[in-house]
Write a structure and sequence with these properties.
Number of domains: 2
Number of helices: 15
Helix content: 25-40%
Shape: elongated
CATH architecture of the largest domain: Alpha-Beta Barrel
Strand content: 5-15%
């Protein structure tokens, strides 16, 4: 059942209702690190996927056909027309000329470069890889994020293993935002320089709540380091030719959430994704995403594209979220992994999705660990009933072995093992002179077919 658009069902308290905050816009002292030259590697991306059977990367009409013309856009030098659309809701009375121009740049970027995406695939560690992005775009995703990459490791010139393994894209993988976790301005810029010619923006991860993020001091564990965050974004905006965005979590205090979001915008973020959960909400303590806080961020920052993240289970939840929060788009993470057809509003079988994903993986080299994780999620509803499938998936070490898990499974008599909700033949039993109808099935007539 979809969430109702009331504060009580969005996981929020009544104290948030109709609360409007006035934010201090004074900028703190900026102590940026010096920039260094770092030439991006010109990757030779294979386009073999275009010539293979059944891999139509343009299946979704929203995917731009003339993407080549967008690859070298420099958002800092773009000419902005002062029309009624871009930043139309902004309060121009209290804004300077430069602030109004920046506001229109944000929506110009969102509309012209990102193509006003409404359905967005989240950055997911080891899970939103190229093959999965291709599958998601076929079923309605209009913007995809890469997995979160570790900026320092990604830009390490002494060891290119991590970079070569993580960074995979092609010219049809657009619009695309590349996400990095970083805790230094220069490492973020160094990493971003390597992708700025093949992406539409770079995103600073400020939402990862996992223990590894706490140990490395990045993600949601930078929420107490506002000055450092501002330095990272400001430094990146001054040294990159593509926009910088940020993905955040909320504070329990709405006024602090709003001040935090305003600081990010002031630093130069062109788009914000708000995950309506606290840093502590993870695992068994996840709880509901607070749509009311997201609504208030939207209300207080009308000049900035805002994406909501959290509480999306079914297609109708997307419209409910947009109607309640007034955000520009909705991001899905976990639900996209269990149902990559979410944004198409189509009900697909898990084995159809698994088959299509594996066909893509044949053409786009993908780590077996990624494939296994995706198949476990796709088949999750079936695994309690078909325990042997779980074992087979766990033991698979190649793409061929993975494929066999989604092929027709036969029982010992040669009958197909099909879920009970599919139409299937009645099974005849051997004649038993004592019982009339015996217990043993007759089996099937299977004739070998020669080539």
């Amino acid at each position: 059942m979809a969430l109702e658009n009331t504060p009580s069902n969005t996981g929020v308290s009544e104290t948030h209702q109709n609360k409007k905050m006035k934010i201090d816009t004074d900028q703190p002292e900026n102590n940026m690190l010096n920039s260094t030259n770092f030439e991006p590697k010109n990757l030779d991306i294979s386009n073999q996927i275009l010539s293979k059977n059944n891999i139509d990367l343009h299946a979704d009409p929203e995917i731009p056909k003339n993407i080549d013309s967008m690859e070298n856009i420099d958002m800092r030098g773009i000419t902005i027309a002062f029309d009624d659309q871009a930043g139309s809701d902004a309060n121009e009375t209290n804004q300077s000329f430069s602030e109004r121009t920046a506001d229109m740049e944000r929506y110009d970027f969102y509309r012209k470069v990102l193509k006003s995406p409404k359905y967005i695939v989240a950055p997911m560690v080891d899970q939103s890889e190229l093959a999965w992005r291709i599958l998601s775009r076929r079923y309605g995703a209009q913007l995809c994020y890469t997995p979160m990459f570790h900026a320092k490791m990604f830009s390490d010139t002494s060891n290119r293993g991590y970079y070569n393994e993580m960074w995979k894209t092609n010219k049809f993988d657009r619009p695309l935002i590349v996400q990095f976790c970083a805790n230094s301005p220069q490492s973020f810029v160094d990493a971003a320089k390597l992708v700025e010619n093949e992406a539409d923006a770079v995103d600073l991860n400020l939402g990862c709540p996992q223990h590894i993020a706490k140990r490395g001091k990045y993600g949601a564990f930078m929420m107490d380091e506002w000055k450092l965050i501002e330095e990272i974004i400001t430094h990146a905006c001054a040294n990159l030719k593509i926009p910088v965005t940020a993905k955040i979590r909320i504070y329990s205090d709405i006024s602090k959430t709003l001040e935090y979001a305003q600081m990010l915008v002031r630093a130069g973020a062109k788009l914000l994704t708000v995950h309506g959960r606290l840093r502590e909400q993870k695992g068994h303590k996840t709880g509901l995403s607070d749509w009311e806080q997201i609504r208030l961020v939207r209300e207080n920052l009308p000049q900035v594209p805002i994406i909501s993240n959290g509480n999306i289970l079914y297609f109708e939840d997307i419209e409910n979220c947009i109607k309640y929060t007034k955000v520009d788009g909705v991001m899905s993470a976990e639900t996209n992994l269990y149902n990559p057809a979410l944004f198409s509003n189509k009900l697909k079988t898990n084995y159809e999705m698994a088959t299509e994903y594996l066909q893509i993986c044949k053409l786009v080299p993908t780590k077996i660990s990624y494939i296994r994780a995706h198949l476990f999620k796709l088949f999750k509803p079936s695994l309690p009933k078909y325990v042997d499938l779980r074992t087979q998936l766990a033991n698979s070490k190649s793409l061929e072995e993975m494929e066999s898990t989604e092929e027709d499974q036969l029982d010992e008599y040669g009958y197909k093992i099909l879920p009970h909700w599919y139409c299937q033949p009645a099974i005849r039993r051997e004649f038993d002179s004592k019982k009339s109808v015996g217990e043993k099935p007759l089996g099937r007539s299977i004739v070998p077919i020669s080539d």
